[in-house]
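Quick illustration, no need to memorize.
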Amino acid sequence: MNLRRYHAAVWDEPLIMEQGAPGRRGYVPPAPIEAVEDLVPAGMRRVVPPALPEVAEPDVLRHYLHLSQQTMGMVGISLFGTCTMKYNPRVNERLAAEIADVHPHQDDSTVQGLLEIVHEFDLVLRELSGMDRFVFQAGGGAAAAYLHACVTRAYHESRSELAQRTEIITTSQAHPCNPATAAAAGFDVITLPVEEDGYPSVEALRAAVSDRTAALMVNNPDDMGVYNPHIKEWVDIVHEAGGLCFYDHANFNGVMSRIRAAELGFDACMFMLHKTFGVPKGGGGPAVGAYGCTAALEPFLPGPLVERTEDGYARRENPGGIGRVREFLGNVPQVVKAYSWVLAMGADGIREAADLSVLANNYMEQRLLGIPGVTKSFDHLTGRRLEMTRFSLGTYTAETGVTAVDVQNRMTDFGVDAFWLSHEPWIVPEPFTPEAGETWSIEDVDYWIDVLEHVLAEGRTDPETVRTAPHNQVVAQIDGSSLDDPARWATTWRAYQRKNAR
């Protein structure tokens, strides 16, 4: 293999507040308007000027260039599994920027184009899922799962069964947001263990279901790439007991255009716009969890909903709904980006993307399993995996003492992003879960695998180099002992000055 030479830029870069000198300017604002005393009440006027850095424009540009060069993640080859990471087209960012000046309190007549996009994207997701209505308020996948838990509560309350239906069923391979949000909404959680076939058995589900069952919350396929072929039977069992069924579509990328949640009998589902639909991921800020449901649950949705009327498009409240879960229509710029992505892909492109995602995953599996020390979860299962496969370095760690985290760190020394391990709890030892999706080229995938193979070989001959990595990155291993000490860390300039005696 031929690995490229790599070394990250390392700058001893001070904070922007520590740079510059009095009188330096990148921009000289116009003189203040006259009679400012008449415009700003005395109680709101500053006694002293704001603490702002005085820096020339070239210094500002250089500072932020240095910071950008020291960005460690999501800029190399990032085969980040369990959270589909794909390229975010720049044109979508430009399109979303066009609505930056729109105010959420504007009259509907002045934002017809934006409301049309929201409504049309709702229709797109209905087509992909079979659901009857989508809302975009939820600020990410966990927020959408919590929204379903709240809708479940409202649904059973409307039937005077909430006091009885206290349990939500999930599995040990479901994303943690499902049991966590169910518990946060006040339900007891029953977690089914994964069995020999890679998923819980029908018998285990039957044993867990009762007249106390409020809902089933699962994702399928799971993060091991295993699809539960009995999922429709699962839904029927829960429905027979009077519960609802929620489909967490975090792993939709490999089954786009192949599976419709409603046709499997589900009452609701969610899509992560910041995964499947080419929208940037941002830790609950820019994220959107699109939540869709059948007509039976629509009365419980948070408002406002967007309707098409004779005069165009309009927002309406949903009087019987659970109330707001986020402000206004949610993070609408991300909806614009996702809608643009869908239009660019088209139905054929979406189907092809799913095919490429599955193809790339199985190509990676064939190569990775040829590396000594790499195994996969449930390696006795010979069927093809879907969008991702969970691999294990358990054998390798037993042989070398080098852990999956050590390998993560060392791989960044070659200009690729650290792989994702696994959601907790770990079902396989020393896990890693790469996912190529449709974004990455065969050259990128091969290079990523080459780097992993090199690091694993290095761990056998020079394990200390791997354990002490990274060596070519922005930072080396840090002492994390102070990360929980509020006397040490600071989130504002004023706190930084106080805690550093400046």
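The chain has two domains: 109-343, 347-477.
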